[in-house]
Amino acid sequence: MKKKRVLPVVWLIIVYTFLYLPIAVLAFYSFTDASMIGQAGHFSVKNFRTLFTTPELLNMIFGTIVLALVVGVLSTVLGTFGAIGAFYSKKRNRNLIEAMNQVPVVNADVVTGFSVCILLVVVLGINKDTYIPLVAGQMALCTPFVYLQVIPALSQMDHRIYEAALDLYCTPGQAVFKVVLRQLAPAIGSGFFTAVTLSMDDYFVTTYTKPAVFDTISTYTVNATKGAQTEIKTALWALSALIFFIAVAVVIAANVRSRRVENP
Amino acid sequence: MENILELKHITKSYEDGINVIEDLNLTVKKGELITLLGPSGCGKTTLLRMIGGFDLPNSGEILLHGEDIGQLPPEKRPINTVFQKYALFPFLNIYDNIAFGLKQRKVDKNLIRQKVKHALSVVDLEGFEKRNVDSLSGGQQQRVAVARAIVNEPEILLLDEPLSALDHKMRLEMQAEIRNMHDNLGMTFIYVTHDQEEAMNLSDRIVVMANGVIQQEGAPEEIYDRPANIFVADFIGVSNIFTGDVTDKKRARFAGKIFKTDSDLPVGTRIEAMIRPENVEITGAGEGAIDAVVTSDIYKGSHHEITAEFGKYEVTVYGKSRVETGSTIGIDFPREYIHLMRHDMDMNVFDGVINQDGSADFTYFTLAPDAEFMRDKAPGSKVQVVFESKDADLSDDPEAGFVTGNIDAIMYIGDHYTYIVRGDNDEDYYADDDWLWNMGDRVSIVVPQDKFRYRELI
C-alpha cells in the first residue's frame, strides 16, 4: 500500500488557493449581472458585451496593445544590439554596461517613471502628447530585460558560426542577420515577450509620462475602480478574467511546445 | 606541380604590438595536403585565418594563382574552411547547412540538390538530409562540416584542427577518411594541427612553426629523420638530444664521447646531436660505446621503452626484449642515425611553473613576470620565458644578474662576442657582449626586466 503524504498536498492547496482564489472570484462574478462582488446575481454575459461594445474601453485595450507592441519591438532591437555590442566589448566596458543595465532592473518603477518624466518633460521640454516620453519611459523599463535574456544566449553561442557564414559567401551584414540573429532568435523572442508583458503591466512610468487623453489598461483600471461607474467597473472584471485566461492559455501552449521539442 | 598559393613576407601583429607572424614565406602546390604544425600560440591558426580572410596581414602578399587576395574579405575568396568544433548552424537541418553556401551564391535549386547529395555521399552520410545538427555524433558533425565546405568546390580547403574535439579512435578513423577524400577530390588541403602524429599520418608536406616563424618544411620522413633544429627534433616524435661540438672532420663530441658522423659541419661548430630511440643499439655491457644503467623498462606492446643513465646523461631506447632495472647495458649510436644540428644561440628558452608567491620558478632561477602577465595565472600553470642573446649582458658582480655561471665558450661574431655561459647545474646560457672575457670567468647574466618575454604553455 502506498502511503499518501498528506502534508505536502495540503500545503500546495493552501498555496494555490492564495494564488488563484481572488482571480477565480473575479472570473466567477464577471459571468453574473451582480454589480458588486458578494452580491447575488444571475448568469449573464452582459459584462463581456459592455467590454466589447463600449468605445472607450475598446480604445483603451487597443491602445495598450499597440503601445506594448511598439515598445516591445523598439526595446528588443535596442536590447539585442546593446547586448551584442556589450558582449564583444572589452571586458571592462562590458562590466560597466552590465552594471548600469542592472540599475533600472533593481530600481523602483516609480523612480524610473518619475525621473524619465523629469528628464524628458521638464528638462528637455518634450510634449507628453507626442507619446515620446511614454515610449521612451517604457523602453527604459523594458530594454534591460531584453538585454538580460540575450546575453546568456550569446555566451552559449559558438562564435565561429559568424565566421562560418562569412566563409560561405555572406557579407558581414548577412552573417549577422542570417546566422547570428537567427541563432539568438529564441532569446530575442522571449526578450520581446518580456518587454510586451512589462509594458502592459506598467503603471508608474505610464502615469508620469502618458498624454492626458491616453490610458492603458493599468492606468484606466486604477482610475475607474476609484469612481462609482459600476457598468464600466464590472466590465473590467470581465477584462481581468479574459487577460487571465489568455495568460493561462499562453503558458500551457508554451509548455506543450517545449515538451514536444524536448521529446520529438 | 603548379603553385596555387604563395605567401610572401607576411607579417601580422595584434594591437599590443607583438608580432605573431614575422616575415613568413610559404608556397603551396596545387592538389597537395599540407599541414601547419606547431604548439598552441605558434601562429599557425593566425596564418590559416589570413589565408581564409578572417584576419588581414599587416604587410606582405597572399597570392592565389599569382593574384593578390590578401586584402579580400572571406566571402570573396574561393577558399572554404572546416572550423574547429564544426561551427555548424544549429537552426538548420543537415541539408540546409550544406546548401547554405550554394544558396548564398544563388545556384539553381536542382543543381543544389544534386551537389548536396553528392557531398553527403563523399562524407558517407547519405540519407541524413532531414536530421538536426544536435542529433548527430561529433564525428558525424565533423563530416557535415567537411561536406558544407567541399560542396562549394573551393580551390583550397582550410581545416582548422578539425579533429581536436573527437576521441582518439575516432580521430584516427577521420584522419584516414580526410586523406581519402583529399585523394579522391584532388583539392588542395591546408590542415592545421598541434598533433604531430596526425600531421605525420595525413600530410604530403609538413610545415613546422614556432613563435610565428617556420622552423622547417618538408615531407614527414624528412622532418622526422632530419629535423632542422632542436625544436623540431623535440616536437616531432621522441628523441635523444645531446649538446656538443664538431671536433674533427665527420667527428663530433657529445654525451661525453667522440662519435663518427656523416655530417659535413665545419670543425668547431657548436651542435646538437639527435638520435631516435628506435635507432639506438643495445649491446652487452662493455661492448658498446657507452655503458649505461637501466632506470626503467616500460612495455609498450610493440617495443620496450627503456630509459638508461650514464654520467649526467639519460638516453631512451626502444628495445625488443626486457632488461632488468638496475642492470648495466652497452649502448651504441650507429653513425648513419646520428643527426647533427647547428646550435642556435640567438635565443634562450626555459620552461617553468608559476609558484605560490606569484612569481615563476624556472629550474635554475626564479623570475617575477609583470603583473599584466600574472593576472589570472594560477599557481602551477606552466610558463615559458624567452630572452634573446643580444639582450643579455655579462657582469662580474654576481648580484647584478639573475643567474651565475662560468664562461664555457667564446665566439667572435663580427662586432661582438657571443658567450656560452655554463650555469652551476650544467645548463647553458647564451649572451652577447661587447667586451672580451676569459674562458672560465665567473659571471652573472644581466637581462633588463622588459626583455624577458613570457608565454603560457598549454
TrEMBL record, chain A:
The keyword Membrane applies. Residues 61-254 form the ABC transmembrane type-1 domain. The keyword 4Fe-4S does not apply. The chain crosses the membrane at residues 9-31, 60-84, 105-126, 132-151, 235-256. Keywords: Cell membrane, Membrane, Transmembrane, Transmembrane helix, Transport. It is a multi-pass membrane protein. It is found in: Cell membrane. InterPro entries: Bact_Polyamine_Transport, MetI-like, MetI-like_sf. Its main location: membrane. One of its GO terms (cellular component) is plasma membrane. GO terms for biological process: transmembrane transport. PANTHER family: PUTRESCINE TRANSPORT SYSTEM PERMEASE PROTEIN POTI (PTHR43848). Belongs to the binding-protein-dependent transport system permease family. CysTW subfamily. This is ABC transporter permease subunit. It comes from Candidatus Weimeria bifida. The lineage of its organism: Bacteria, Bacillati, Bacillota, Clostridia, Lachnospirales.
Automatic annotation (TrEMBL), chain B:
The keyword Transferase does not apply. PROSITE patterns: ABC_TRANSPORTER_1 (PS00211), ABC_TRANSPORTER_2 (PS50893). One of its GO terms (molecular function) is ATP binding. GO terms for cellular component: ATP-binding cassette (ABC) transporter complex. InterPro entries: AAA+_ATPase, ABC_SmlMolc_Importer, ABC_transporter-like_ATP-bd, ABC_transporter-like_CS, Mo/tungstate-bd_C_term_dom, P-loop_NTPase, Transp-assoc_OB_typ2. Residues 5-236 form the ABC transporter domain. It holds the Pfam family ABC_tran. Gene3D superfamilies: 2.40.50.100, P-loop containing nucleotide triphosphate hydrolases. The keyword Transport applies. SUPFAM superfamilies: MOP-like, P-loop containing nucleoside triphosphate hydrolases. SMART domains: AAA. Keywords: ATP-binding, Nucleotide-binding, Transport. This is ABC transporter ATP-binding protein. It comes from Candidatus Weimeria bifida.
